[in-house]
Amino acid sequence: MTDLTDGAIRAKEDPLYRNVFLQENTKFILSRAYGAIGHYVTESDDEWSVALLAFNDAIDRFEPGKGEFESFSALVIRRRLYDYLRTEKRFSQEIALEPYAMDADDYGENDEVNSLALEVRQKTVQQAVSGDGTRDITEEIEAVSTILNRSYGFSFMDLADASPKAKKTKEGCAKVVALILSEEAFRKRLREQKALPIQEIISRVKVTRKLLERHRRYIIAAVEILDGDFPLLAEYMDSIRKAMVS
After folding, report:
1. pLDDT tens digits for 158-195?
2. CA distance 216 to 221
3. 232-238, long-range: CB < 8 A, 24+ apart
């Protein structure tokens, strides 16, 4: 376990130590807030209070057997800040969401992934200033979210947890999406039953039931995006598109 994970476990059971743990990790919380919204945050900003409360909540919700506290708390902070920015009606101007999360490899401390996240956010902010493209991708996200909510009962934001991270898992999901997109019968079954035809898929593609159940939302969203008129979001799904042409 990392020191942060050990500290979170202790803080969960020891209220006095929790205060010490929160103070010791001020820089970590600020850096994760910056990573989430793409601009520096200080302890005098409202975003700091949101991030601090999220970090504290992450301590209560953390389950050691499911991973490291570092990546878990970063995810909680990110989501809480997104909710706050949406409430403040600044979400679409500062961040047009995280479409790259559809195809990310990791949500921990991987520098390459964090650099990509910052690059996408910065590009979105630049587009917002110049009036070039941000509204288009925001409209695509809203349209896809409507489809996912009405037909399948989950939101675009839920895809962060549902997206595959390991290369082998991503390849398996890509093959499933490619199969569904290649045959009308599969797409019709999916949309009529609002669920993946798991048994039929397993008989055609070498994947496990566990993979299909765990990444059901990602697969469904990928099908709807790639089968619809969402060219900007489709650009963030390279692994799926490569499987379709291979």
Report:
1. 676 667 778 888 889 999 999 999 999 999 999 999 99
2. 9
3. 232/99, 232/133, 232/136, 232/137, 232/140, 233/99, 233/102, 233/137, 233/140, 233/141, 233/144, 236/99, 236/100, 236/102, 236/103, 237/102, 237/103, 238/103
Query: Token digits for 69?
Result: 């506290």
- Quote the CA–CA distance of 120 and 244 in Å, as a whole number: 25
**How many other β-carbons are positioned within 10 Å of the β-carbon of residue 110?**
14
Give just the sign of the alpha carbon dihedral 156, 83, 34, 68.
Answer: negative
How many C-beta neighbours within 10 Å does residue 104 have?
A: 19
Give the span between the Cα atoms of 96 and 125, in whole angstroms. 8
The position carrying tokens 């009405």 is 150
User: How long, in residues, is the chain?
Assistant: 246
pTM over 0.70: no
